[in-house]
């Protein structure tokens, strides 16, 4: 097992995460070795057995498990039930733009899908009422859906819309489809702008169960409020994505 500082390569974080005092934690040194192995064996390949890897790198199984565990949380490895740990596919890239989840997933060659958890009418609390331009206690449509990509559960989306604007939405909209597309094509809604806030969280026990993920897996939480060009509110959306399966991309201009 090498204990020297890994050389810095162009494009990597400065010093590749090594503390300034230069002493590399053993699990981190193993992790860098595993990253090289992952690149060599490729997506879907099984890692060698735990004992073999521990012997190869000259560390204890506890140290090896810590390195593997971090790579699982980061989405570089997957633990398959009843089988060994395998190299994960690349993360899904979702654009931070006024496009639907459906469009973003299809551009990557996967079929998007949704499983409906709830579709109902609720009373708006003061903040939701302000976001959607309704009176506090006014009626809003609430849709909660598990997001799928190629049949895999990858997120959970909660959408709120003012009922007075879309009185027949629950009757006319196929909740398995794209809400964004329905609003545009069937109701003539024009998305003018949106404000989006992004943070990292851990899923609640209920959310983890719905998404089918480990509660310790980091999640990416997006809050979005959308308006038409004249400032009329359209929807407020809370989207929770698996941090091990998603990354987000945008292009910034001056």
UniProtKB/TrEMBL annotation:
**Stored Pfam families:** GntR (PF00392), UTRA (PF07702)
Q: Which UniProt keywords apply?
A: DNA-binding, Transcription, Transcription regulation
Cited InterPro entries: Bact_HTH_transcr_reg, Chorismate_lyase_/UTRA_dom_sf, Tscrpt_reg_HTH_GntR, UTRA, WH-like_DNA-bd_sf, WH_DNA-bd_sf
Q: What domain of life is recorded for the organism?
A: Bacteria
Q: Which SMART domains match?
A: HTH_GNTR, UTRA
A GO biological process of this protein is:
negative regulation of DNA-templated transcription
GO MF terms held by the record: DNA binding; DNA-binding transcription factor activity
> In the UniProt record, does the keyword Endoplasmic reticulum occur?
no
What's this protein's name? GntR-family transcriptional regulator
Species, as recorded = Saccharopolyspora erythraea (strain ATCC 11635 / DSM 40517 / JCM 4748 / NBRC 13426 / NCIMB 8594 / NRRL 2338)
């Amino acid at each position: 097992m090498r204990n020297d500082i890994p050389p810095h390569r162009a494009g990597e974080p400065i010093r590749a995460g090594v503390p300034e005092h230069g002493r590399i934690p053993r699990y981190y040194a193993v992790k860098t070795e595993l990253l090289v192995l992952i690149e060599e064996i490729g997506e879907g390949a099984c890692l060698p057995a735990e004992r073999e890897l521990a012997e190869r790198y000259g560390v204890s199984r506890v140290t090896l498990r810590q390195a593997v565990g971090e790579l699982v949380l980061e989405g570089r490895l997957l633990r398959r039930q009843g089988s060994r740990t395998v190299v994960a596919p690349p993360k899904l890239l979702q654009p931070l733009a006024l496009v639907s989840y459906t469009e973003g997933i299809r551009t990557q060659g996967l079929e998007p899908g949704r499983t409906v958890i709830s579709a109902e009418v609720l009373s708006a609390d003061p903040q939701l009422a302000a976001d959607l331009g309704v009176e506090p206690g006014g009626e809003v449509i609430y849709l909660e859906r598990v997001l799928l990509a190629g049949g895999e559960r990858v997120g959970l989306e909660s959408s709120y819309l003012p009922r007075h604007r879309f009185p027949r939405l629950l009757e006319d909209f196929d909740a398995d489809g794209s809400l964004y597309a329905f609003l545009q094509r069937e109701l003539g809604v024009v998305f003018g702008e949106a404000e989006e806030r992004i943070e990292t969280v851990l899923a609640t026990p209920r959310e983890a169960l719905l998404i089918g993920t480990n509660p310790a897996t980091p999640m990416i939480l997006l809050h979005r409020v959308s308006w038409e060009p004249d400032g009329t509110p359209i929807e407020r959306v809370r989207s929770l994505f698996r941090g091990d399966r998603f990354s987000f991309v945008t292009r910034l201009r001056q």
